[in-house]
């Protein structure tokens, strides 16, 4: 089969580009140790309510302006569904699911994670502006999905 010279050139350029992309991806993934965040802690999703710290979900103060929020997601709610922190606080969110895959999006921030049963997902954010931050489930989880929300009040 005859192939025009220009087509051979573009085919070669395309293959070299794909190879270069694979090399760069490999360097970042393996040599530099880039890994997706969290999902480092696993648990039995049927025992979330008995497993610390999720047996008593809530906000815990670790130090001045430093908090950890242990939260559970379940059809169709978050526990706790209301949190309050002062302006300037850094909050680490540890979230797990009791039943199905949920989402955890803190509207107006870069906190956005998938909450998978059996895995604990974590994200940290510093709140420099006061306001009512809405926490939404952004993964369809059933017929009451649109009702699944919580609030973080920054005063």
Automatic annotation (TrEMBL):
Compartments, record wording: Cell envelope
Pfam families per record: COX2 (PF00116)
Keywords: Copper, Metal-binding, Oxidoreductase
Boundaries of every Cytochrome oxidase subunit II copper A binding domain copy: 60-155
InterPro entries, per the entry: Ba3_CcO_II_C, CcO_II-like_C, Copper_CuA, Cupredoxin, NosZ/Cyto_c_oxidase_sub2
Protein name: Cytochrome aa3 subunit 2
Organism (species): Kyrpidia spormannii
PANTHER family: CYTOCHROME C OXIDASE SUBUNIT II, NITROUS-OXIDE REDUCTASE
């Amino acid at each position: 089969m005859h192939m025009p010279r220009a087509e051979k050139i573009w085919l070669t350029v395309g293959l070299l580009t794909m190879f270069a992309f694979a090399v760069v991806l490999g360097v970042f993934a393996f040599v530099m140790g880039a890994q997706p965040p969290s999902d480092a802690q696993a648990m039995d999703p049927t025992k979330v309510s008995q497993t610390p710290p999720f047996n008593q979900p809530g906000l815990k103060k670790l130090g001045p302006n430093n908090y950890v929020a242990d939260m559970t997601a379940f059809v169709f709610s978050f526990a706790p569904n209301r949190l309050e922190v002062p302006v300037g606080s850094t909050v680490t969110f540890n979230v797990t699911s009791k039943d199905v895959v949920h989402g955890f999006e803190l509207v107006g921030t870069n906190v956005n994670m998938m909450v998978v049963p059996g895995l604990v997902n974590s994200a940290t954010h510093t709140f420099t502006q006061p306001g009512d931050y809405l926490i939404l489930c952004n993964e369809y989880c059933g017929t009451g999905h649109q009702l699944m929300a919580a609030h973080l009040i920054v005063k």
